[in-house]
Amino acid sequence: MTGDGTTGRGTTGRGTLIVGSGLIGTGTARRLAAAGEHVALVSRRPPAVPAEAYGARWRPLDATDAEACRRLLYDLRPGRIVLVHGPSDVTWCEDHPDEARAAHVAVADTFAALAPDARIVLVSTDNVFGGDSARNTESTAVSPANAYGRAKLAAEEALLAKAPRAVALRVSLVYGHEPADAGKWLNFFAACAHRLLRGERVEAPDDHWTTPVLLGDVAEVTAALLHAGHPLPPVLHLGGPDRVTRAEWAGIIARALRAPADLVTPLPRARTRYASRPVNACLGSEVLATLPATENIPVRGVREGARLLAPAFAGPPPV
């Protein structure tokens, strides 16, 4: 960034800026802050848990306001940026495709233009694929399944066209702990866990395949990419090692929580809210495990993830 703050060239690397305070944004902020890094978290509304509680800072920002972003970057001068912005409700995006695309692309384009020399990681999605393949890798041809996938793909293209050190990290279904009183749970695991513990029925498709990835593993990989001391490919994939249907996964969650298995009701995808998702929302990587920054990071399967998370849902939430 120059002295007048009009460009990102010359950023001094004072910590990491995370744009978006949802599940992945706050999970990554926690991971970086725990390592002693200066972390600024920005979003329209405050995160559910105050960022200061785990050593980060939160500031309000409408990331679609380019001038506000310019002022923020001039003030913070981050060397690393994580973009987890924009509407992520697939159904909402399907109903508002132009608004979804505009929001995702505008933010990616703004940060690419203002901070082209920063290491930027854009968290993208498996929805950039049509669902024909059981394993989508970095070399699989993209064919977005829905409006959300089209918006994310357009954001990837906008970012990578202007920021040579940027990475689009496509992640599969991310899951982690969320409190029971969160209002609207942001991940499938939390929604299942809280309903099962209340004795409520969980309906899940038995013909919708995914490769779920634990939030802690996403945060670990993202942190490693931000600090990688070597060039990175422009596109990387991160999915879990297990390919499961949502119904199968809900059964695994029920067993981990010792909830009645018959509370899980398998249904066809077309009869659920997941009808617009690709049949195979599955990601694999040909590259991630070969990179020096990430080759030693284990990515855990759904059974280990359920075992690790179950105590937090059944008992006091994690600090």
TrEMBL record:
Q: Which family does it belong to?
A: Belongs to the dTDP-4-dehydrorhamnose reductase family.
Give the protein's function.
Catalyzes the reduction of dTDP-6-deoxy-L-lyxo-4-hexulose to yield dTDP-L-rhamnose.
Name of this chain's protein: dTDP-4-dehydrorhamnose reductase
Q: Which Gene3D superfamilies match?
A: NAD(P)-binding Rossmann-like Domain
Classification via InterPro entries = dTDP_dehydrorham_reduct, NAD(P)-bd_dom_sf, RmlD-like-bd
Query: Quick one: which pathway?
Result: Carbohydrate biosynthesis; dTDP-L-rhamnose biosynthesis
Q: Which residue ranges does the record assign to the RmlD-like substrate binding domain?
A: 18-290
**EC numbers on record:** 1.1.1.133
What keyword terms does UniProt attach to this protein?
A: NADP, Oxidoreductase
Class of enzymatic activity (EC top level)? oxidoreductase
